[in-house]
Amino acid sequence: MPDLITKIETTGYSNELGRIARKLSSPNVGLFRQLRGISVVYGDLRDLSPKVRLYVEENVDLCKPDNIHICDGTDEENNHLLKIMQKQGTIIPLPKYENCWLARTNPADTARVESKTFICTENKSDTIPSPKEGVKGQLGNWISPKDMQDAVKQRFTGCMKGRTMYVVPFSMGPLASPLSKIGVEITDSPYVVASMRIMTRMGKPISEKLQTTGGEFVKCLHSVGAPATGFVESSQWPCDPERTIILHKPAQNEIVSYGSGYGGNSLLGKKCFALRIGSTIARREGWLAEHMLILGITNPQGKKRYIVAAFPSACGKTNLAMMRPTLPGYKIECVGDDIAWMKFDKNGQLRAINPENGFFGVAPGTSRASNPIAMDTVFKNTLFTNVALTNDGGVYWEGLEDETPKDAKITDWRGKAWVRGHDSTPAAHPNSRFCTPAKQCPIIDPAWEDPEGVPISAILFGGRRPHGVPLVYEARNWKHGVFVGAAMRSEATAAAEHKNVLNSTNKRFQNIQNTKPSKRIRPTTISKRHYDDDDGDDTTEGSKFCDNCKHYFCFCRESVTNHPVRQTTISITNKWICIVTRKFPSCKEQTSTASNRETERDRDRERQRQRETETERERDRHTHTHTERERETYIL
Q1: For 131, which DSSP code?
Q2: 467-497: buried (b, 16+ CB within 10 Å) or exposed (e) per residue?
Q3: Which residues on neighbouring strands pair with residue 297, listed in sequence order?
Q4: How many CA atoms lie less than 13 Å away from 271 in the CB half-sphere?
Q5: Is the CB of residue 230 less than 8 Å from the CB of residue 240?
Q6: pLDDT score, position 471
Q7: Which of 287, 354, 513, 558 lies deepest, with the highest CB count within 10 Å?
Q8: Cβ 446 vs Cβ 298: under 8 Å
Q9: Residue closest to 262 by CA, chosen among 430, 396, 104, 153
Q10: Residues 6 or more apart from 45 whose CB is under 8 A from it?
């Protein structure tokens, strides 16, 4: 036998042997239309490469679905899935627009869950830095391979009983691009399939490429899950929020997500693949996967340049990518609004592609005034999630007040009647979304699907910081730019689960000790013009903390209109005013004079810095929900 093997290798028969083996690896699938005894109700298993089929077989054994659906990405398939979701109550049609739909999620499933998102590596230090003993780090969560295996086994065993398993082959980036990567998502959610059809290049062309190349792919397993008790609270939006977990295994290019149907947790081509796994692939292969928009700018002389801009979620990437210039002669065109994959070409030019195929944008705040291009994009072939509904079959969210008739009857994102001006809660969820094809954007760049990517001339870094940094500034050099970009911070957004926790950029306002929590404020609208210290600089150092009454005070030179605490108008001149109670202090702070105010201010600043240090240490100990021991218990 060893001699025979050697002879085959040396005589060149290995290619023919491989061809025969590939045929034998999928016997009779076209005839029986079954896999491990499970019926294939749509598609053909012969469209799957041997590696993909093996991956599907493994998860059929694990998840025990009733049926299998091989996605081809056609319009007929999409219409079929929309009808299924409409029948289940997952979506409702929006007759005011062309082929638009509204989905309402379980109220417990509306955002990404960072505390339940883990990276699996052999060594913990490969995932996160080692913090000081007793301190919980903020730069990610690590899970061991054994704990990941146990978590998957506990949650996924039989999780698709009574449901259909959908096999979704997809490409991140134009299929012909050398930068593009292929993935296969297995899910039990038709909502995920319909959304992936918009957000990625999906369907039979991807399967055909995998068949011809036999190439590797990123494995993406998702299930909406079901509570351990077996009780499903919402049949139209099943989920398991108590056991939700998102796992990444970079060494095997593997993603596992359980318990959530929300886009950031279930559309595994987006944050999970395009950024988390994508960045590890990029590190191995020598390119970059970044949370950046890509746009082209043409000046009046006809010179066009492309830039990328790195902003966190809800900081204006979509608005900037779709900006309408006010300077005469300038033109802006959009390549992408969220993610950029970049690589230097053979000539040393940095080039970027948009790996996505659609926009998954935040709806509230989007309007004709803030982003007219987005408004021209989203009202066709779009899947809206958790926005409000109007009685004429349209949508509503905060920001559309001027564009919605005042007599319109509105149903909020929970399905309850909502009256403008009377209800205190928002009509649309703050993290409500639109999922819309990128090709519908009126200013989509002609080169947005160029396989080679577009040449990048500049990089912007930004965030949402109401205090402490200038609005715009230029780095001194490239090294300084890398430092500034790496050190940037931003306020928490509605897409984050801990959105109500005060951001570290506003720590000076966290130590208001003798005030009820309902009256604690984050004075992001206090401006230098109204609250200032004597030196007239543009910092917020004018605020001072009183050790007697335990409140902060700001020096006010002018009348304050629309006070951020009480939304009323008060008039005070050249006095220290408490930013919590709007009253003058009755303690010794009020007696400070201009002559000794500088000395007091220096002492106040030093005390404030000490308090901030203590507050930060306390926050590090108490902000996060799970200790290491609790997290192990949760995982298991």
Answers
A1: P
A2: beeeeeeeeeeeeeeeeeeeeeebbbbbbbb
A3: 305, 332
A4: 20
A5: no
A6: 84
A7: 354
A8: no
A9: 104
A10: 26, 29, 30, 33, 35, 53, 70
What does DSSP assign to residue 380? B
Q: What are phi and psi of 369, to 5 degrees?
A: -80, -40
- Which residues make beta-bridge pairs with 42? 69
Contact 419, 374 (CB under 8 A): no
Rounded Cα–Cα distance for residues 65 and 222 (Å): 13
* C-alpha distance from residue 81 to each of 35, 162, 164, 278, 607 (Å): 22, 17, 11, 29, 62
Q: Per the structure block, which two tokens stand in for 392?
A: 């004429």
| Span 485-500, pLDDT tens digits | 888 888 766 555 544 4
Question: Do the Cβ atoms of 331 and 325 come closer than 8 Å?
Answer: yes
Q: Is the pTM of this model over 0.90?
A: no
* Interatomic CA distance for residues 573 and 569, integer angstroms: 13
Mean pLDDT across 590-604: 56
What is the rounded CA–CA span in Å between residue 38 and residue 590? Answer: 78
Q: What is the identity of the amino acid at 628?
A: E
DSSP assignment of 510-562 equals TT-TTS-GGG----TT--TTTB--TT--SSSTT-EE-TTT--EEEEE-S-BSS
Closest by CA to 354, choosing from 280, 444, 265, is 444
pLDDT in tens, 522-566: 333 333 333 333 333 333 334 445 554 544 445 443 343 443 433
Tokens 């796992």 identify what position? 247
Q: What domains are defined for the chain?
A: 22-90+108-130+137-286 (3.40.449.10), 287-387+429-501 (3.90.228.20), 510-610 (no CATH)
Kindly list the catalytic residues.
315
